[in-house]
Amino acid sequence: MAIAGRCKVKTVVLLGLALLSFVAEGAVPEGRRHGFRVRRNLADADADATVFDVMTYGAKADGKTDNFEPFVKAWKAACSASAPATLVIPRGTYLTGQVVFQGPCKSSNPITVKIEGTIKATTDISEYPTAEWILFELIDGLIITGSGTIDGQGASVWGYNDCSHNSGCQLLPVSIKFHRVNNSVVNGISSVNAKSFHMFITRSANITVHDLNITAPAKSPNTDGIHIGSSSFVNITNSNIGTGDDCISIGQGATNISISSVFCGPGHGISIGSLGKYKDEEDVSGIVVKNCTLSNTTNGVRIKTWPGSPPSQASSITFQDIVMDMVQNPIIIDQNYGSHKSAPSRVKVSDVHYKNIRGTSKSPVAVSLSCSSEVPCQGVQLVDIDLAYKSVRKSKRMQNSTLSASCLNVKVTSGGKQNPPACP
Q1: What is the DSSP letter of 157?
Q2: By C-alpha distance, which of 233, 270, 244 is closest to 164?
Q3: Which of 18, 58, 116, 191 is most buried by a 10 A CB count?
Q4: pTM
Q5: pLDDT at site 274
Q6: 3-state DSSP call for residue 376?
Q7: What is the pLDDT, as a whole number, of residue 75?
Q8: What's the pLDDT score for residue 340?
Q9: Residue 106: what are its φ and ψ, rounded to 5°?
Q10: What's CA 286's distance to the chain center, in Å?
């Protein structure tokens, strides 16, 4: 009965919000494609805003009361306001199950969500009819800020994750999902112990993410830090991410993505892909990863595609000014990801640049470029690569191994320092 009651409340809230002014699905308003509209009002977003404190709407910061209804009531009031609005979650610990913050909102100013407390997810998976915990959707102009923490309490459910041996597995709830959100800034908050991905950005545009702390144990399954798919003009910077999976993963349909000044570790590195798992995937292009450090990760900078895939493309990709600190596979293209199928991948990888990548590799094969036999990689460039082999084993044979590069179905051009020597 409690779950049925909650669903009824959600339905009423969502229907009410749908009556507000309409924003076209997935559209970026004209004139905003090359900049963030929210910047215009960032400086005074709080100064003139009406504050909607969740405590006023009945929230209890006791760590055990489900705050779904107070959170949604506060959001509804803030989203319906004509003037600038700030929803505040003050210090304290707030428990909640799945909650949807849906627009479009009434004001032309960005709506602000200020998180100063700790929000904890309920652990009963039956309370999550869809694969997200906190969902922001259909919003044009959103600022999420504060010094608070989003705690997915993932340790209670990680044991149910079977994705390591089941490619068709059902992911557990994402901690924060942005769906059809445009012109947004997310900064300052922390995300810990997500049930699966910490942050998922999809069908969105003009998103800036900075100064985040994202953490989960190294053995936690599928706890990607930030995943981006079918979105454009996403900028991630000045953040610390350490998880049990990719620190940042870039999926199909991602274009014009910038990642800089990110410290990644532990985790599986910064990855483009996996691509080519499903039919009709959108192309990936315009990816720049710069000034990042990867420490004790399984991979460094990686492109991964499934074998036997439908055709698509990943192009115009740059990895530059990257530090590798004891990384197992510093530079890797894997077009036979996740399977031993004989059919080659049909994801065409091209125009890929690795520049000024330095540090230490745990593996004697520091550069592994394994491309598709059907659509070989094109335009792959290695410039100023300076990696040293540093084995964690004590065997003299391993310590004296020569660092090398391995290349398959790819012709590489190189320049500057090449350690290991580039493939011919």
Answers
A1: T
A2: 244
A3: 191
A4: 0.88
A5: 95
A6: coil
A7: 98
A8: 64
A9: -75, -40
A10: 16
